Amino acid sequence: MPFTFADPTPDAIPLHVLETDAVAPWLDGQPDAVGAWVRANGFTGKLGETLLVPGGNGAPTMALAGYETAARRARTRYALAHAARKLPAGVYGIASGIAAEALETEALGWLLSLYRFDRYRKKKITRVHLVAPDGIDVARVETIAASEALIRDLINTPTADLGPDRLAAAARDLAGEFGADCTVIEGDDLLDRNYPMIHAVGRASATAPRLIDLQWGSAGPRLTLVGKGVCFDTGGLNLKQRGGMALMKKDMGGAAHVLGLARMIMALALPVQLRVLIPAVENSVSGNAFRPGDILTSRKGLTVEINNTDAEGRLVLADALALADEDEPDLILSMATLTGAARVAVGSDIAPFFCDDDGFAQMLSAAAARVDDPVWRLPFHPAYEDKIEPVIADLDNAPGGGFAGAITAALFLRRFVSAAPYAHFDIYGWQSVSAPARPKGGVGQGVRALLDALPGVLDL
Q1: How many domains does the chain have?
Q2: The domain spanning residue 44 has which CATH number?
Q3: Are 95 and 131 in contact, with CB atoms under 8 Å apart?
Q4: How far are the Cα atoms of 26, 77, 143 from residue 217, in angstroms, in the given order?
Q5: What one-character DSSP code corresponds to residue 368?
Q6: What's the pTM?
């Protein structure tokens, strides 16, 4: 699937992007025939409005796209992508109407609007292509779009075609593309190498659990990304109900996100030493499934009382985070579709994150605003530490009470990081209703903000 700009061509149709209050002044400068055509077709400049303007031979000489008002655009993302989905197939070039500071985001939105998950469909679609606007970083925008497509493809693929084995294969493919190293520890070898909680969560599946370890770069700050790779989550013996299981193919969304971010970093050759750790499992039900009431001993040596087998993501992440921490990198980032509580707190459109570093939080929030990739900081609230401390073990994987579930999960994860700066992202990774440049299905959250913030955070 192409996520690149079209080559400049004389045949590209000029696209004029018009706010509602700019339509009349723009028409005053056009030939009478153009004005008559536009008025006759009722074009007013609202978001999503498009119009082809024909020449004397009937072929389009230009196209118009509505851009409404700044206030209206503030309520959406990728305003131009409203038009990209409605214009006829062809090649277009932006001729006027978009401020220079918005060009890169709007051009990215256009590329993202090309995405369709059509792996299982015979019928393919024709696409509306855009010539890269002058003044944007073409390679960066194309890289981000292609990496976002990787995130979406991985999340959208059903578990029958993307279990732990094939998630590992996807990581190996990515490593091969960019000359990275990728090793995978599998099955009972996880016990021999001291990853007991990854093994416990994944051992009931017909597909063995794995720890994926991708490494790239030999100089610069050391950055470790840890992504939750639960390829399907039945809930284990605390079995989910039907509705709760419907979207569980996306429970490896954290893994998809760190692979997408890793792709951006490698393709753009950021001067870092990158490591990506993914515990890849399927939380299934079998005679050897881990049980409520079990006590698991983690890689770090901390014991964990299992009060709910459906709180498995933090268990597999804990072993991977302990490994990441042993290497004492300059920054550890974890990403996971971890808690419903995070969705209740900020909804599905915002990626909440936790960190103790005010400087990191400020740089990330500023980057999120620049690239229109919303995030929101939630607290590692120390007063809630006792909620994750049961009577008979060091930690509780599912504290009761019903409150602050996202925070207690983040506090649990932080117990496994002590030597390195750490931030955790509790993402949703799913677009429930189609929106411009974001069709229903898997979607990236927070990765563009991180890409923009990392040079400042790591002093690159």
Answers
A1: 2
A2: 3.40.220.10
A3: no
A4: 51, 34, 18
A5: H
A6: 0.97
